[in-house]
Amino acid sequence: MNLSPRIILFAPLASNLLTITYHLFIQPHKTTHYSTHSLQTLQNPIITNICNSLRKGENWETLTKKFKSFHFTTPIIQEILLHLKEPNDAKNALNFFHWSAKNSNTRHGFFIYCIIIHILAKSKLVRHANALIESALRTENVFVVLDSLIGSYKLVDSCPFVFDLFVQCCAKLRMIDKFLDICNLLEENGFMLSVISYNTMLHVVQKSEKTCMVWGLYEYMIEKRIYPNEMTTRIMISALCKEGRLQRFLDVVEKSHGKRSRPGVVVNTCLIYGMIEEGRIEDGLRLMKRMLQKNMILNNISCSLVVLAKVKTRDLESAWGVYDEMLRRGFEGNALVYDSFIGAYCEEKLIDEAIKLMDEMECLNMKPFGQTFDHLIKVCSEVGRLEESLKFCDTMIGNGVLPSCLSFNKLVSKLCENGNAKSADQLLTRIMDKGFVPDQSIYTNLITGYANVGDVEGALKLYYEMQYRSISPNASIFDSLIIALCQRGRLKEADEFLSVMISQSLTPSTHVYKKLIASHLEKGDETRARQLYRQRRTEIDDIQ
Q: Are 139 and 3 in contact (CB under 8 A)?
């Protein structure tokens, strides 16, 4: 297939795109631009004859014999296709399209492809339409194809279904990054896609490595009043599972509403919650209002999300006002509201106020989220209130919830700073037995903590545990181990760790070299000390 000359587009959605490509695709083929010639061809009996021959079902050999002396120009091919644009003639149009491509001296231009695609889509000849759309998409820029389809729409008296087919072909070809731009361009031209097309796009995105993009597409869909069906909800629940957030938002809905709710409510709560967390508060609340009108989200959950929005804007007074109004209307306080306030107080280091709210939750038999405990563990650790931090950690574990790596690392860091690396290590063992997976930062703090109190064996045990778990040590870990080994006079092991460190492209600190050199000199090994000195000088020269 010889489509139009390639066009490189730097701004696919530019409003003048159709104008840019007009002289290549549209203008030469529009009936109005062939006014004189079109009037002649309309009166030309050849058009009537070939249409009648096609309707009689004459084969290609017969058509070739009858019309071999006639030169089919692009305007004439266009006129014939437009004579065959109605559904009862669609197969005849397709037959002529392929026959003329085989027998014409020049291959079909891009605009002719758009005309036949419209005819096929209008007649629900989906397989044939899809084949031609895919062929065009593999050869041309997606927005050139779409603009030309839009430009030829009225000429064929087409139907919006053609754009559903177009989008579904784009999905098949995994044009994920183009989906929102395609939807925008269609909407600007007055075309809305069906929920089936949105489901197709959502499914492809959800299955890809760009699962997070599914929420932007889902938001756009609702914003344009294309409301989800059961299949949409199923796809979005799969996205939540893939992201590891399903249980989190099942808990949010259950603790806000007091019981389990429909899957669609879980999905919509997640969407609005995410928009508020991203700081897109006005957009989130506007979309939530629309959801409320369509019964897509529950009243008590929406009130809780309004409180969250007020808290996010640091307007705690207004947030409490919304909460009081919520209670006056008969709604009960819930864990989401309390979590919002506790998180805000912790950020402001108003720890006593946050703990007071936590005590209120306990009195109301309200089960906090894991993240609520994380807020308190983190802030209590930061200000040195380690007993309270440990207490919240114990309560959290007793509730069957594990701390986040971030909050637990804060606790471990402070315990190690206070010389309690062993206590921190024992706590880590306890939560690992329940499924906690430590990260590099936690191991770094523990190994440094053990090294600082001279417990080399404790530090080495954790180093080998890291290797077993395929967690790569960082420079700080090697520095701590080497210095601790030097302090214990275990220079051979210290040198071995230095070699391993360098082999992993990690740069030892100046303090490490000074400690190694001093330790070797203390042992009387001047040769090794000089070697280390030269090695350090070489590294400095390489850096400079």
A: yes
Range list of β-strands (E), 462-501: none
Whole-angstrom distance, CA of residue 119 vs CA of residue 155: 10
186 alpha carbon, distance to own chain's centre: 23
Instruction: Decide if 516 contacts 494 (C-beta within 8 A).
Output: yes
Average pLDDT, stretch 381-387? 95
Residues 6+ apart with CB under 8 A from 201: 167, 170, 171, 179, 217
Determine the Cα–Cα distance for residues 228 and 452; give it in Å rounded to an integer: 58
Residue with tokens 């700073």: 417
Spatial contact of 83 and 47, defined as CB atoms under 8 Å apart: yes
pLDDT for residue 541: 57
CA dist 342 and 331 (Å) reads 20
Chain mean position to CA 390: 36
Report the Cα–Cα distance between both ends of the chain, in Å, rounded.
58
CB 310 within 8 A of CB 319: yes
CB count within 10 Å of CB 417 equals 16
d(CA 99, CA 336): 67
Residue partners of 352: CB distance under 8 A and separation at least 6:
none
Paired tokens of 383: 């200000």
Among 416, 407, 417, residue whose Cα is nearest residue 439: 407
pLDDT digits (tens, 9 = 90+) for 287-346: 999 999 999 999 999 999 999 999 999 999 999 999 999 999 888 889 999 999 999 999
pLDDT of residue 540: 63
d(CA 274, CA 309): 11
Contacts of 35 (CB under 8 A, 6+ apart): none
**Gap between the Cα atoms of 544 and 537, Å rounded:** 11
Which residue, chain included where needed, has tokens 């706590």? 427
pTM of the model: 0.79
Mean pLDDT of the chain: 88
- Is 373 in contact with 338 (CB distance < 8 Å)? no
DSSP state, residue 383: T
**φ/ψ (deg, to 5) at 418:** -90, 10
8-state DSSP, 4: S
Residue 485: CB atoms within 10 A of its CB come to: 25
User: Cα(26)–Cα(363) distance, rounded to whole angstroms?
Assistant: 73
pLDDT tens digit sequence for 131-148? 999 999 998 899 999 999
Q: How many residues does the chain have?
A: 544
Query: Residue 221 pLDDT > 70, yes or no?
Result: yes
**Which positions ≥6 away from 386 have C-beta within 8 Å?**
380, 411, 414, 415, 418
Q: Helices 142-151 & 179-188, crossing angle to 10 degrees?
A: 20
Q: How confident is the model at residue 260 (pLDDT cuts 50, 70, 90)?
A: confident
